[in-house]
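**Polypeptide and fold**
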Amino acid sequence: MPLPRRVAEFNRWVTNPLARLIAAGMPPFVIIEHRGRTSGRPYQTPVWGFFTTDELIIALTYGPGAEWVQNLAAAAGGHIVARGHRQAVGPPAVAHAIVDAPAIPLLIRRALRLARIEDYLRLPLTSGRMPI
């Protein structure tokens, strides 16, 4: 069950600007760079991301209908900034069983399951990392 929309709005205007200040260099934070589907405006959304050898896994705490997820899907990808590097990502794929995401640490998976958050996003890493 995704978090309420009110929480998303609070995070969008209060928490996210603060998180962007530290997110790019502090795991597990990752900044998702995407463009608005209709406005074309660039956005940076801080999330918790967990890397495998070829993809980034992100729990969808606001569900697959979150604006940033829809923007990535419409553009067939975007960029991420993590650990001081910027990297392109391909089209997102939504998966529906958080317990099947071993890249996410066990304690976090358990907390997500308790919160009834089952959806997660798989973002393929499509190019080499570039220092920022």
